[in-house]
Design a protein that fits this description.
Length: 259
């Protein structure tokens, strides 16, 4: 299927590895020029070099912390008029809400709610004026099925979800869609760190904890960054123009609800 986005330009946040990289790679494979942003300059440049080698598109790397005003300014200087925006930032740490102070909440809101809103604000009017735009926010399956120890993430990402629900109905008439991708257990560094922590706490071998966690999922495995990226690329395509304000859950069937 031709996604109809060859020659477009995408700003992809958190793109040096994991799900962000999966999205950047899937878009590049469709002929989209990508501006990739991440904090780790070395890893980011390595990712950029690999994308340039594999795909005949322009790849610009911006080493910056997208959750800061300075970082967003650097990203937008490199990509002032993106056709596609992929919002992505690491989630806040787990814990007990009794131990979180105001600064913990503000940091979570800055990273997982206010940063994507700021980037949308900076880009959405230009998209509407040009008659094309695709915004995808990488959030979490916890938006659909909250996890008690991830209260900071539950709160901040749910706030973003509510904001998007209203705005997405205003932009779609201009062929600008805004959707959220909700990952469940994907085989990323973040998941591996969580599994390692579980192994250390339980005294079990990492391989055993990993196997047990996979067995708990109806699919019997973890998701891959490649299949996550493919879903993202479809949401960015011309074929998804009638799909907006949606929360697309990719979790191997772990969420047990009908709706």
């Amino acid at each position: 299927m031709d996604l109809g986005i060859k020659g477009k330009t995408a700003l992809v946040c958190g793109a040096s590895k994991g799900l962000g990289r999966g999205c950047a790679e899937a878009l590049a494979a469709e002929g989209v020029n990508v501006v990739i942003v991440a904090r780790n300059a070395g890893l980011l440049e390595q990712t950029a070099a690999e994308l340039r080698q594999r795909y005949p598109v322009q790849v610009i790397a911006v080493a910056a912390d997208i959750t800061t005003e300075e970082g967003r300014a650097s990203a937008l200087q490199a990509c002032p008029s993106p056709d596609i925006l992929i919002n992505n930032a690491g989630g806040p740490p787990p814990g007990d809400f009794r131990n979180w102070e105001r600064d913990d909440w503000i940091k979570a809101l800055d990273a997982n709610m206010l940063t994507p809103i700021a980037l949308i604000r900076s880009t959405v009017d230009g998209m509407m004026a040009r008659g094309f735009g695709r915004i995808v926010n990488i959030t979490s399956s916890a938006v659909k099925s909250p996890i008690d120890i991830l209260g900071l993430s539950n709160g901040a990402r749910s706030g973003l979800t509510g904001f998007v629900a209203g705005l997405a109905r205003k932009t779609v008439a201009h062929n600008v869609t805004i959707n959220n991708l909700l990952p469940g257990p994907f085989d990323t560094d973040r998941l591996n760190a969580t599994l390692q922590a579980g192994a250390s706490a339980s005294g079990k071998a990492l391989a055993q904890v990993r196997s047990e966690r996979m067995a708990q999922n109806p699919a019997g495995r973890f998701g891959t960054a490649e299949e996550f990226g493919a879903t993202c690329a479809f949401l960015c395509s011309r074929h998804a123009a009638f799909m907006t304000g949606q929360n697309v859950l990719l979790d191997g069937g772990a969420y047990p609800g009908t709706f």
